[in-house]
Specification:
Blueprint lengths: L2 H21 L8 E3 L10 H6 L9 E5 L2 E4 L2 E3 L4 E7 L5 E5 L22 E3 L2 E6 L2 E4 L10 E3 L4 E4 L2 E3 L5 E3 L5 E5 L2 E4 L4 E3 L2 E5 L2 E4 L4 E5 L9 E4 L2 E4 L2 H7 L10 E3 L7 E5 L2 E2 L21 E5 L16 E2 L2 H5 L3 H4 L9
Length: 338
């Protein structure tokens, strides 16, 4: 090969390297930054998610600066190992306002509950941290803030704001973990079939209704476990604005089974006086009382008194409760918790 041929070959090789580097600009563990005011590379969270490589084998952080991000976000199945971290939990807000009765332009029919999400996660090993996810719709129907079907998804120090159906844990067999979170809603505002552990979370009723509506599959050992959580309600003027008829909130149930074998356990929790003595509801179907798995252990507060509890709910013994740990509930796999 003559001199000019070698030069040409070297130039082509260099161009290939440059092209490869350009194509893989974001294929590395470097943090991506999002700022609504335009001071970072991305202005929207969805834009940063879009550039992440499919099936990453490294941990990728998307850091979201304080601001209000009005966007509807979908984290798809091919994305893994992503952490979306807000600068400030209460001032980094992802918000949308769909509800079940919004008409779809293409059909003219209501969109239904499962399309109303603000954030939907079907990817696995996804973490949200220090951020608020809100469905700010009018109270005209079900309105999901977080729809999570992904496996091994973690939510740390987050706020979930909404009314009916705030959090949908949407896939049987999927494992999810919430720690130090604030979750509010009106009716069935934590619902679905997943296996979920809630640790040290504040759960806030905004009206007389139901906290949970588990639809745990029959062959799934665990559904919802609330440990060291605080179950309270709005009070005063806030309650008068939110509750039906402007009355104080004082008629709430811990849960009702969306499907017959719903599993929900509250242990070591503080239950406010707004929780009814019955504690649990059968969703108007006596047959559910034979199958629903509703349990309590070592709770405290006015709403924790066991006198008046429905006969078909179970109070665990100390020995039984000691066996229920994250390792047990998650089938021995806890490395993904962080």
């Amino acid at each position: 090969m003559n001199y000019f041929g070698k030069i040409l070959l070297a130039f082509v090789a260099l161009m290939n390297v440059v092209a490869l580097q350009a194509a893989n600009k974001y294929d590395n563990p470097d943090t991506l930054f999002v700022a609504r005011d335009g001071t970072a590379e991305f202005r929207n969270v969805a834009e940063a998610i879009e550039v992440c490589r499919a099936f990453m084998d490294y941990h990728k952080v998307i850091f979201v600066k304080k601001g209000i991000y009005k966007e509807k976000i979908d984290v798809p199945t091919w994305l893994t190992n992503i952490e979306i971290c807000g600068e400030d939990r209460d001032n980094t807000i992802i918000t949308w306002d769909d509800h079940a009765n919004v008409k779809q332009p293409e059909t003219g029919k209501p969109m239904g509950t499962f399309r109303t999400f603000t954030v939907k996660i079907t990817g696995s090993n996804i973490t949200f941290k220090n951020i608020t996810i809100e469905n700010n719709s009018a109270r005209l129907g079900q309105a999901v803030a977080l729809h999570v079907e992904g496996d091994k998804c973690v939510f740390l120090n987050c706020r979930f704001l909404g009314h009916q159906d705030t959090i949908y844990t949407g896939r049987g067999g999927a494992l999810q973990y919430f720690k130090d979170c604030y979750i509010e809603g009106t009716t069935d505002f934590i619902f679905g079939p997943s296996t979920v552990w809630f640790e040290h979370c504040d759960i806030v009723n905004k009206s007389d209704s139901y906290v949970t509506a588990a639809s745990t599959p029959k062959d799934q050992k665990y559904g919802y476990v609330f440990n060291n959580c605080k179950i309270t309600c709005l009070t005063g003027e806030a309650a008068a604005k939110s509750n039906r008829g402007g009355q104080p909130i004082k008629k709430c149930y811990l849960g009702r089974p969306w499907r017959p074998y719903g599993y929900t356990l509250f242990m070591n929790c503080e239950l406010g006086a707004h929780i009814l003595p019955q504690g649990w509801h059968n969703w108007g179907n006596k047959e559910n009382e034979k199958t629903a798995r509703y349990l309590e252990y070592n709770n405290r507060g006015e709403g924790a008194k066991t006198e008046g509890r429905v006969a078909w709910a179970k109070q665990l013994t100390k020995k039984e409760a000691a066996k229920i740990t994250p390792a047990e509930v998650f089938g021995g796999d806890t490395e993904w918790l962080r």
